[in-house]
Amino acid sequence: MSGDILSLNNIEVIYDNVALAIKGVSVNVPQGGMVALLGANGAGKTTTLKAVSGLLRPERGKVTRGELRFLGQDIEPMLPQKRVQLGIVQVLEGRRVFEHLTPDENLVAASAVAGSSHKDMQRGMDMVYTYFPRLHQRRTAQSGFLSGGEQQMLAIGRALMTQPKLLMLDEPSLGLAPFLVAEIFEIVQKINRQEGLSVLLVEQNAVAALEVVSHGYLMENGRIVMHDSAEAMKKNPDIQEFYLGGSEGKNFHEIKHYSRRKRWLS
Ligand code: ATP
After folding, report:
1. Angle between helices 118-131 and 148-160 (to 10 degrees)
2. What is the rounded CA–CA span in Å between residue 226 and residue 217?
3. Which of 47, 120, 238, 252 gets the most CB atoms within 10 Å of its CB?
4. CA atoms within 13 A of residue 55's CA, in its CB half-sphere
5. Secondary element (H or E) of residue 224
6. Which residue's alpha carbon is nearest to atom 4 within ligand 1?
7. Closest alpha carbon to 48 in 230, 201, 191, 214
8. Taking the C-alpha atoms of 30, 241, 263 and 50 in order, what is their torsion angle to the nearest 10 degrees?
9. pLDDT digits (tens, 9 = 90+) for 133-173
10. pLDDT tens-digit series, residues 223-266
11. Of 17, 18, 45, which is best to mutate to test ligand 1, by the most ligand atoms within 8 angstroms of its C-beta?
12. How many angstroms is it from 22 CA to the middle of ligand 1?
């Protein structure tokens, strides 16, 4: 579809030539849009992101069906570096930063890997520190001593140094206090709006994600089971029950059991 920076059409991924991890996955991110991919642990969200960034190969994963287009180009045959050059960047789950380096050094390193000019590096650092003033205050501290929230900000900052057109975030809320999650998501939303950067946000935390995106996709067992506006998803009774806290008090096994009777699967 024109107007989409990213479009996945009917994608299937297999690990180790046998394990089918995602099937028939179609996801679109509009140019300049901010979209969430929601779902529980193991639903296939990370696999979907890795199909886009090209990071399946080291894990012996392979896109075996479907079409992957970025700005209209078929990116499936491209190596990960080439996809970064085109403007695709993935912030991996777990806030990976160089812990022995300072935030300043981390940002310079990210810029060097992207092959940016000195001027672009300066501009990138100014931008990162403008959006993340908290990080600016800690710019010369050893990154291993930053808080979880600050490390997540730095991981996003490193991605921004590659001058991306599409930022893909994998579970940025993981292990962070709710106020910090809200702060980080609001900053990402601000970057999305002010810089026109398209964002694909992968989250288990549907509550926080649906506050900042325009649309969401819900994944279960390797398939997309729902796609709607954020407003409609927030109001959906199934989403409310299973992803917005309505299932509080039920244990995981019970949630799994109940999930078999969800309306969208019947
Ligand atoms: P998480 O919250 O754990 O990141 P997820 O929704 O991102 O969950 P994936 O990590 O994409 O889910 O996993 C989807 C399916 O693919 C799971 O069944 C998982 O066991 C399988 N899988 C993921 N990585 C591999 C791998 N490297 N080799 C084999 N199977 C894998």
Report:
1. 140
2. 6
3. 47
4. 15
5. strand 223-229
6. 46
7. 201
8. 40
9. 999 999 999 999 999 999 999 999 999 999 999 999 999 99
10. 999 999 999 999 998 888 777 765 444 444 444 444 444 544 43
11. 45
12. 9
Amino acid found at 230: A
Q: Which residue lies with its CA nearest to atom 27 of ligand 1?
A: 59
Q: 15, 62, 168, 252: which to mutate for ligand 1, most atoms within 8 A of CB?
A: 15
Could you tell me the distance, in angstroms and rounded to a whole number, from the CA of residue 105 to the centre of ligand 1?
32
Of 95, 96, 106, nearest in space to 129 by CA = 106
> Which runs of consecutive H residues, i.e. helices, occur in 114-250?
118-131, 133-137, 148-160, 178-195, 206-212, 230-235, 237-243
Cβ-contact 76, 67 below 8 angstroms: yes
Given the structure tokens 């398209």, which residue do they identify? Answer: 198
CA of 248 to the centre of ligand 1 (A): 25
Cα 181 from Cα 133, distance rounded (Å): 16
Residues 53-96 pLDDT 10s: 999 988 899 999 999 999 999 999 999 999 999 999 999 988 78
CATH of domain 4-87+165-265: 3.40.50.300
Residues in contact with ligand 1 by the CB-under-6-Å rule are 15-16, 19, 21, 39, 41-47, 59, 93
Nearest CA to ligand 1 atom 29: 15
How many angstroms separate the alpha carbon of residue 31 from the centre of ligand 1? 28
